């Protein structure tokens, strides 16, 4: 443990003993076994942590073999979350300044990616004007109420709640602000989400009543903003970011969707331009989370209810797996800033 107290987590930049990440240490002859408790199962630095722990133990001079068991305990800012979403550790908004940029596509694939990493995940479809999450996740049915709490449906191992489950197909939502606020309150406080690590909140596009109401109802730990590369879309991104700043919600980064089209022959076509979101992120001093190509497979996955990240090993799936790991790492850093380290066990 003394050797481990000199080993820093590569992202949290504190030693792993004070962070209570080193547990169940056992020594048998010259072999050392221990458990490393990550702050998220989507940790992108597993290999680096393994190397640092092994190197730290080897400084003792007598260690022959190191056996590391990796597990995870997602941390949370419990105080604000307890009010409206008691079982949800971290609520993350996915937003866009305008419609048609693939915000819901990014939402479902990030959720599936986090679940593939091993996290427990839910999706709240807060896009009351266009609740498409049921279709994109392949979920059908009518939510039931148990002891006054609405039970979310499940698909791909993810809990889902959407106004789309409660509307007849094709029914328009023609509501004013107070009715939107009431519906969103029902979709949050009246739903039995259980214990989940991450709740992905798919916001409506723009900066209207629904987005404002949701940001006030749900204790968001951060927001991800989705844009296409062209300047007209980026202008709306800046408005979204300004809204979150006024609501005191940190923006975790920007995603550039429909970034380019890749022909079968390998030729790359930048239909909407390229790099605009990355440039905007640099200008606004925000993380750039990555590029998602314009690809028929992504669209087909959304239409069929089988998100492309269901095949996490595919090139497209890997994009969202890497993106979700960056987001989870950012949340872990934020939680370290808000809460005290876990007590030693």
Account of the protein in words:
This protein has 2 domains: 4-72, GMP Synthetase, Chain A, domain 3, CATH 3.30.300; 78-338, 3-Layer(aba) Sandwich (Rossmann fold). Strand 2 (31-38), helix 1 and strand 3 (65-72) form a beta-alpha-beta unit. The strands form 4 sheets. Strands 8-9-5-10-4-11-12-15 form an 8-stranded mixed beta sheet, sandwiched between helices. The radius of gyration is 21 Å and the shape is globular. With 345 residues, it is of the alpha/beta class. Residues 341-345 have low confidence and may be disordered. The chain contains 10 helices and 15 strands. The protein has helices at 46-58, 78-84, 103-117, 133-137, 177-189, 209-217, 231-246, 276-284, 296-304, 315-338, and strands at 22-28, 31-38, 65-72, 88-95, 121-125, 145-146, 149-150, 153-155, 158-162, 196-202, 220-227, 251-256, 261-262, 268-269, 288-291. It starts with 21 loop residues before the first strand and ends in a 7-residue tail after the last helix.
In short:
The protein contains ten helices and 15 strands. It is an alpha/beta fold and 345 residues long.
């Amino acid at each position: 443990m003394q050797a481990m107290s000199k080993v820093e987590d590569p992202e949290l930049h504190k030693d792993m003993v004070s962070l209570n990440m080193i547990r169940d240490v056992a020594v048998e002859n010259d072999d050392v076994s221990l458990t490393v408790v990550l702050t998220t199962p989507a940790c992108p630095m597993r290999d680096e942590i393994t190397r640092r722990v092994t190197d730290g133990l080897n400084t003792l001079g007598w260690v022959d073999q190191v056996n590391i068991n990796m597990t995870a305990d997602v941390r949370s800012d419990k105080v604000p979350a307890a009010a409206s979403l008691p079982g949800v550790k971290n609520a993350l908004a996915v937003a866009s300044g305008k419609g048609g940029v693939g915000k819901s596509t990014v939402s479902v694939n990030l959720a599936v990616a986090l679940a593939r990493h091993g996290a427990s995940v839910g999706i709240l479809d807060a896009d009351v004007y266009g609740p498409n999450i049921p279709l994109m996740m392949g979920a059908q049915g009518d939510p039931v109420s148990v002891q006054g709490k609405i039970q979310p449906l499940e698909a791909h191992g993810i809990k889902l709640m959407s106004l789309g489950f409660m509307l007849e197909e094709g029914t328009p939502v023609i509501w004013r602000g107070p009715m939107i606020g009431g519906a969103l309150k029902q979709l949050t406080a009246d739903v039995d989400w259980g214990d989940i690590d991450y709740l992905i909140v798919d916001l409506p596009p723009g900066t209207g009543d629904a987005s404002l109401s949701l940001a006030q109802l749900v204790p968001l730990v951060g927001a991800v903003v989705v844009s296409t590369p062209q300047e007209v879309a980026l202008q709306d991104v800046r408005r979204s970011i300004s809204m979150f700043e006024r609501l005191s919600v940190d923006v975790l980064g920007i995603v550039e969707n429909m970034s380019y089209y890749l022909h079968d022959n390998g030729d790359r076509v930048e239909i909407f331009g390229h790099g605009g979101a990355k440039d905007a992120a640099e200008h606004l001093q925000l993380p750039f989370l990555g590029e998602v190509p314009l690809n028929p497979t992504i669209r087909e996955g959304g239409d069929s209810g089988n998100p492309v990240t269901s095949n996490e090993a595919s090139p497209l799936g890997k994009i969202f797996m890497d993106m979700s790991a960056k987001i989870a790492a950012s949340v872990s850093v934020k939680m370290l800033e808000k809460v005290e380290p876990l007590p030693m066990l």
